[in-house]
Amino acid sequence: DTAVSQTPKYLVTQMGNDKSIKCEQNLGHDTMYWYKQDSKKFLKIMFSYNNKELIINETVPNRFSPKSPDKAHLNLHINSLELGDSAVYFCASRPGTGSYNEQFFGPGTRLTVL
Amino acid sequence: AQSVSQHNHHVILSEAASLELGCNYSYGGTVNLFWYVQYPGQHLQLLLKYFSGDPLVKGIKGFEAEFIKSKFSFNLRKPSVQWSDTAEYFCAVNRGWGKLQFGAGTQVVVTP
Fold first, then answer.
1. Tens digit of pLDDT for each residue in B58-76?
2. Given A90, A100, A106, which is nearest B49 (Cβ)?
3. Burial A51-88 (b: 16+ CB within 10 A, else e)
């Protein structure tokens, strides 16, 4: 059973296009996250939702819009893709908001913008 | 600025050698600290975490880490590495609401 799954695994697209990445978790967690890992493997948080409510919104271009239809899903839509958006995007989830709770990561979506 | 620093970007060592990866953070107050590992082509997995109590924490696969509050450090250790420990290792601090601030990562290569 996959705990945190993401689709697609790979995404290759042209500059200017709009694309979405989907994330689903079957762990019953309340909180979900999106992270971006750049070419140097540096990980940075982008967004977080708790029970469908946005709780973290880091300094991310407004071309990126997260959507949480329910607490098991957190999708990421990206408008007008740019070369610099090329990265691996990881979804994560964790139970509640307690500081000690670990996050469980998905397998990642490698986005390549040409 | 608040940050997480990992001292080594690349470490190469032989099987059976001991490993220690440094991590320093600059946050004040109570911190929750994590070490994650990313094997080639895979997602991040938790190795261990510290939030209170015994500053020496043990994780999976023989890893341990020591929290030294006075030094703002949370170094990861393994007494004898294996080839399968080849991976990227990330230290992270919880900034609240699960907002993990990651270090830049350390690429560890274990040679047979």
1. 999 999 999 999 999 999 9
2. A100
3. eeeeebeeebeeebebebeebbbbbbebeebeeebbbb
